[in-house]
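ingest -> validate -> predict -> emit
validate: passed (alphabet ok, no gaps, 162 aa)
predict: started
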Amino acid sequence: MQQEQVVREVAAWLGRRLPDGWFTGPPEVTADGEEILVIGPLADGGEDPLDRARRFREETREPRVLLAAELERRYRRKVSWGVDCGGERLLFTTLSVPVMTRLRLPERRVLDTLIDAGVARSRSDALAWCVRLVGTHEADWIQELRSALVAVKRVRAQGPNP
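emit:
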């Protein structure tokens, strides 16, 4: 099942099942092959955003776990939760998925430099830091690339089946 379809289905499913008052708007849903991430907007409420997020986490733990279990059975992916409150984003649970890669000496030296400088604790942490940096600084380019991939999939689907 395509990630975009999973996102649409999960968003609609949650729209029918989330308790009233949890969020100030529809949650942001993202997904990949291993995880579905649901981030809901919280009202500021005049309190410290992190305190508000932590209180929400504790107050909604049991129903969130039940919703996640149902989604996990249906989509065979872990479900993670988070909130956006006062411009602060707090993720409650997320997966950390190992990704195998082969790096040559020059790439390993970059990672080791980040470790030596105290930017990262390990090569894995350094690689994650690099990916976040590219994602932040090249967000427009990455979005354009994703849009192009959607167009390629659409054209491929219209062609002859192999």
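The mean pLDDT is 91.
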